[in-house]
From TrEMBL:
GO cellular component, one term: plasma membrane
Subcellular location: Cell membrane
Organism: Peptoniphilus indolicus ATCC 29427
Protein name per UniProt: Amino acid permease
GO terms for MF: transmembrane transporter activity
Length: 432
């Protein structure tokens, strides 16, 4: 690799930037529409779910640090076909890139109502694509700049918004916490869970990181804690400053306008909201190609797709693939809610596979497990992954009705095609 190694601070920046994005800035309003003041509790429960998942994945990152981490864990601990199934679903799930670009445009539209959302989304996607073509270190520096500004902006949102909440009693009133019933509260939990995932993909930087066995799990844990605290504050302000009906299914812009002076409002909209979604978009471009690149090198897809740019050492064809995937929903008129729910459900499927790999780590790579800087006790290596899988299944089921029969048929059909291809291609795959 031509660039210098990524530090612990850089990894934390990637984690925070990947987590804070379209989720908190856009999906919070959707979750408010589903469960009112229950959003704050939904963030707490979702944070616990994500923390348990990350504890499992941090063990993998510490024991077997490698670029393309998640793919290699599934491939080596479960099997080659399952590894390709994972990476194929991961690639399809990056349709959610559009969510970040559209979210950026929706916030800009609140400042400049005359803009064309589709055009601005396409331009934003293109800019981030070009930034990542120039190398992972450049992308990380850009990421750190975005993260610093957005954390300051969201900090102001919380610091200036909390004093404007006059009544905290609704957060302890079951009729206010679950105004639309328990099922909608559960749906809100898994919706905001989507806004908390991201730190696990720090695992993808195993070969790029300094002291990865130590720094990867530390970065995952630290970035998740930082963002969970931030989101708790956002949940209170989002539901406590204005009447619920003025926030439901909307961005946080209306709340920001209520609590900020005009200059600070503009700073929040740009530095908080727009930088947040830009940072998530940038982080996905940085990590998403890594697993697919390793899969190609194993022989699953044509070798030329993994070709790296000689000047920057970046996989330009793979970045182009993810760029095209992200542009599809933008150009076809996909909405934020549809993209988020579909991406969340695809994500729950492929995210379950590394969790299954955790179960096999102590038996199939005993030395790596025993020598890991960070590891869970054996009982936790059995209990926590099973708990995660049950939760993932419940989350997938909670959104089946929203996706609808046609969406489920498309998703199932894609999975079948990938499984058949993996079966036919396996004899030609290199040995791990």
């Amino acid at each position: 690799m031509k660039n210098s190694k990524i530090s612990l601070l850089d990894l934390i920046g990637i984690g925070v930037g990947q987590i804070i994005g379209s989720g908190v800035m856009i999906l919070t309003g959707i979750a408010v529409g589903k469960t009112g003041h229950g959003v704050t509790w939904a963030f707490i429960v979702a944070g616990i779910i994500v923390a348990i998942t990350n504890l499992c994945l941090a063990t993998l990152g510490s024991a077997i640090p490698a670029n393309g981490g998640m793919y290699t864990y599934v491939r080596d601990l479960i099997g080659k076909k399952t590894g390709f199934f994972y990476v194929a679903l991961l690639a399809a799930g990056q349709l959610v890139l559009a969510n970040y670009a559209i979210g950026f445009s929706e916030y800009l539209k609140e400042l400049v109502p005359s803009i064309n959302v589709t055009l601005v989304s396409a331009i934003m996607m293109t800019i981030i694509f070009i930034v990542n073509l120039t190398g992972v270190k450049t992308a990380v520096k850009f990421q750190n700049l975005l993260v610093v500004v957005l954390v300051v902006s969201i900090g102001l949102f919380i610091f200036l918004g909390l004093p404007k909440i006059n009544d905290f009693s609704p957060y302890m009133d079951i009729t206010k916490v679950m105004p639309n019933g328990f099922s909608e509260f559960i749906a809100a939990i898994f919706l905001v869970r989507f806004s908390l995932v991201g730190a696990e993909y720090i695992n993808e930087f195993g070969n790029d990181a300094k002291n990865p066995g130590k720094n990867i799990p530390l970065a995952m844990i630290i970035s998740t804690i930082i963002v969970s605290i931030i989101y708790l504050g956002v949940g209170f302000v989002a539901t406590g400053v204005l009447p619920i009906e003025e926030v439901a299914f909307k961005t946080l812009g209306s709340v920001a306008k209520e609590i900020f002076s005009q200059p600070v409002y503009y700073f929040f909209m740009v530095g908080g909201a727009m930088f947040a979604v830009a940072s998530s978009l940038n982080a996905v471009f940085a990590w998403a190609p890594k697993g697919l690149k390793v899969a190609i090198e194993d022989g699953w897809l044509p070798e030329f797709l993994a070709t790296e740019n000689k000047a920057f050492g970046t996989p330009h064809y793979l970045l182009l693939i993810f760029y095209i995937l992200g542009m599809i929903p933008i150009l076809t008129g996909g909405t934020l809610e549809i993209i988020a729910v579909l991406g969340n459900n695809i994500g729950l499927i492929f995210a379950a596979l590394p969790i299954v790999a955790v179960l096999f780590l102590p038996s199939r790579n005993k030395n790596a497990y025993e020598n890991a800087y960070f590891k869970l006790p054996l009982w936790a290596m059995r209990v926590l992954p099973v708990l995660c899988l049950i939760v993932f299944a419940a989350g997938f089921y909670s959104n089946v009705d929203f996706i609808g029969p046609f969406g489920m048929k498309v998703l199932f059909g894609y999975c079948v095609i990938v499984a058949i291809y993996a079966k036919l291609r396996e004899p030609y795959i290199k040995k791990s």
